[in-house]
Amino acid sequence: MNEAFDLRGKRVFVAGHRGMVGSAIVRRLAAEDCEILTVARSELDLLDQAGVRRWMADHRPDAVVMAAAKVGGILANDRLPVDFLHENLVVQTNVMESAFRSEVQKLLFLGSSCIYPKFAPQPIPEDALLTGPLEPTNEWYAIAKIAGLKLCQAYRRQHGVDYISAMPTNLYGQGDNFDLDSSHVIPALMRKAHEAKQAGRKSLQVWGSGKPMREFLYVDDAADALVFLLKNYSGDSHVNVGTGEDITIAELAATVASVVGSDATITFDPTKPDGTPRKLLDVSRLFATGWRPRYSLRSGLEQTYAWFLRHIEAGQVRLSAPES
Length: 324
Ligand code: GDP
What we know:
The protein contains ten helices and 13 strands. It is an alpha/beta fold.
């Protein structure tokens, strides 16, 4: 990790700046001496190849962070396979190809820990990629992300450009999607615990068995790691981004209930899928650089709930499915 990319004076385009991760990257980049470029969805549809080429040629960024993606939790992935596969393939390909045409020097592509085989060794090293079958509930998204990281490698190999990719673990935090049908587990449980507390209900329903294990990273920590990689990493392999620690979904539910201040009893809904049994990332490559997360799970959850409470009254929390 020794080929530093100096952000000073650079124009950095963050694709997907309205999303949870993209907005955290914009907040983190504000501390760097660079110019941040964003574009509203109403002005540019990233599915429109000609539009993306034009926009990139007109704005000429020096670096691109590809944080635009169709994302969702376990049910949404399973129910909307075309959206997850097609939209992600098209958007990431448009952005990368247009960036290359416009001579972008550095590009950071974001994937996800679901790219790894369902029964990968734990913790999962970067080289577990493509060593076994994927978890069926999110294979559509995973295939698109694998194609994206391979496209970065292909651009490096064929054209010698510095396109890199990072694979963050399950992320959560401010700006998350709290729609129960399409969200990930943390915003879902936080909303359910909050509403149970408000209504004086004594039951908090958790999907599946509660036994799967997951690793969670607070989104501001993720943004910090990603900007660190943008500046300091230049390599062919993708890099895992996580905390190196995981917990069961049942333990997570108890922690969320405690942060929210709900004394509801946790119940399990076995009709909902568990998904992959465990996906803990091996973060030794990232940690070897000295980078560490700042937020514990509890403090990240407290930050997220404080944000939720500050924004819920004003109608600024996403409580229904985002339009695709
Ligand atoms: P995954 O990491 O791709 O499986 O994504 P999720 O964050 O959607 O789910 C993680 C785990 O939490 C799975 O085992 C889910 O069954 C479980 N889970 C428990 N309750 C919920 C819930 O209310 N919503 C979601 N999305 N997952 C839940």
